[in-house]
Amino acid sequence: MSHTTEQHYPSVKELVLSARVLAAEQPWLCRLRRVGTSRAGRPLHLLSVGHATRAVLVVAGAHANEPVGGPTTLHLARRVAADHRLRNGISWHFLLCADPDGASLHRSLKPASLLDYHRYFFRPAGPEQPEWAPSVLPPDRLPPEARTLLRLIDELQPYLQVSLHGTDLGGTWVQLTREIPGLAEPFAKSAAQLHLPVETGTSDAAGWPVAGPGVHVMPQPGAEVPFPSLPEDVTRSTWFHAHRYGGMTAIVEVPMWASDLVDDNHSHPDPGAALRHVSHRLRAQAAQVEQVLSQARHTEQYAASDAAGVRGGSWAHGGSDAEPPHPLAPLLRATRWALDLVPGLADDWLLPPPPDATMTYVSSIDAFGRRLPLRAAAMLLRVLKAEGDPTAPELDRLVTRWCEEFATAFRARWVPLEHQVEHQARTVLTAARHARVDADAA
After folding, report:
1. Model confidence over 361-405: pLDDT tens digits?
2. pTM of the full structure
3. For the chain, which end, N or C, has fewer CB atoms within 10 Å of the first or last residue's CB respectively?
4. 71-76 CB contacts, 8 Å cutoff, 24+ apart
């Protein structure tokens, strides 16, 4: 469950410094530039390698709690710069961190255990996530990070956009906005070589068409969704924006801790009963977090006042005439967002499961059901500790127990950082090669 390592996920500052060194070493080939500014005034940096018109855009750090994309971008940039064959008619562009504000709050860059990871956890509410914001907000209310990403896609018109993601505990999988023929086999081979389970039934892609084990193709607009309560429309996310230029997007997920339970395609003996248990446990655990939150009412005031700023205040859109947000507010908004998802999801999981539900399908939903209240509790705990709230010890015990139960139930094993990065990089390079063949043939 725990591990010791001298490795760590680089911070945004370390990513930018490394990119600056690469650009200084090969200025004729590499360029680092500021392409946007976050809500809090932090720069968004793009590292470009090569000058060809045909482009690949790689996005890291879209989710603050998934830091593996940062080191993968640096690894890829160095490989592309060193190998002219990878640049043959292609320029590569790396958005080093799509959400630097979120990255500043997620401080788990060297987690020794799942509990250690959650002690410093942060994942923003959906409307504040750069890639997801367009799926839940109208265009005139998008945060600047989302607008920057959309503007980059408009500028580069990439034939392939790759978004680098990671899961805390589980397996590896790929989501595609359009199928890439030839990707599935090398993806599976890489996972096997690096001892990564392939999550063939991830709840993130439940009911989607499958192009191979762990390779899921997003349904077309208007398709029926498996979890009706979820508010976002994936077809309105930044992932689909590349389609207007004939491009597409691949999302590559790798785990921090692996679990072989998510790589079991045997039929589940009683998925309905298993999902009912997950639904009831989700409601019960969320209620425990809600109870602690209700006993710390003053914290809700921060969230309420600053949520108004996010919804329509000028500070959220780069203005300077509004009061700055409370530093604890993003954690509280994210806590509230996660808890508000619970009732609908708990109802969704009481619906009859697919007739062919596998062990991995149920395990993936089980993990999702554990993850949601745990994350809410972990973020709330950070607020309560900062405030010296007397309810903090009670919540600390919950977070500790839930982390231990999660890791034990899923037999979690740490994936060496170099394996996370290597698998993600291999998948990006394979996707770029095969997507180009497909684009050239079109």
Report:
1. 999 999 999 999 999 999 999 999 998 999 999 999 999 999 999
2. 0.94
3. C
4. 71/9, 71/10, 71/417, 71/421, 72/164, 72/420, 72/421, 72/424, 72/425, 72/428, 73/15, 73/47, 73/164, 74/10, 74/15, 74/18, 74/19, 74/22, 75/421, 75/422, 75/425, 76/425, 76/428, 76/429
